[in-house]
């Protein structure tokens, strides 16, 4: 993973740290960001982490590994737990979060006036990932697809 910059996240208007996901041989495979805020809009709907893997690199667990690499960074910023959300029908993202060691907590309806709802996402699955070192020591995702 390669740090890019810290800037305001355009959708949530909160500070976020941006990273590039890279393969073991250094190829750019996707992006991930950590939103540095604990507001209800983040913890309930948007989530602390957003990620995307380029289509030609999907299926190699890059996102699950990148989410795990966010844990110490989140801890440094006082975020515990990490809340990560995805759309209920996004089975790939749900599997990614499970592989990263996150626990499914619930599916919520997004408030009708929230930017996420207005962007076409009326429901979100909420996953929790503890950032305390001891609680995640045994949950490292497999390197094998």
TrEMBL record:
Residue span, N-acetyltransferase domain: 1-124
Top-level taxonomic group: Bacteria
Keyword annotations from UniProtKB, A to Z: Transferase
One family name in Pfam for this protein: Acetyltransf_3
Keyword presence, Hydrolase: no
GO molecular function: acyltransferase activity, transferring groups other than amino-acyl groups
CDD domains: NAT_SF
Gene3D superfamilies listed in its UniProt record: 3.40.630.30
PANTHER family given in the database record: ACETYLTRANSFERASE (PTHR39173:SF1)
Descriptive protein name: Putative acetyltransferase
Record organism: Terriglobus roseus (strain DSM 18391 / NRRL B-41598 / KBS 63)
Lineage per the UniProt record: Bacteria, Pseudomonadati, Acidobacteriota, Terriglobia, Terriglobales
């Amino acid at each position: 993973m390669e740090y890019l910059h810290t800037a305001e996240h355009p959708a949530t208007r909160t500070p976020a740290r941006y990273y590039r996901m890279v393969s073991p041989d250094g190829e750019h495979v996707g992006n991930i960001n950590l939103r540095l805020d604990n507001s209800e809009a983040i913890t309930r709907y948007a989530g602390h982490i957003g990620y995307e893997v380029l289509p030609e690199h999907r299926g190699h667990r890059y996102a699950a590994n990148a989410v795990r690499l966010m844990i110490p960074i989140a801890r440094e910023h006082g975020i515990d737990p990490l809340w990560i959300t995805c759309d209920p029908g996004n089975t790939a993202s749900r599997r990614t979060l499970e592989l990263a060691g996150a626990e499914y907590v619930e599916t919520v309806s997004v408030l009708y006036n929230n930017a996420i709802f207005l962007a076409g996402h009326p429901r979100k699955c909420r996953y929790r990932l503890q950032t305390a070192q001891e609680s995640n020591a045994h949950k490292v995702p497999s390197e094998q697809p």
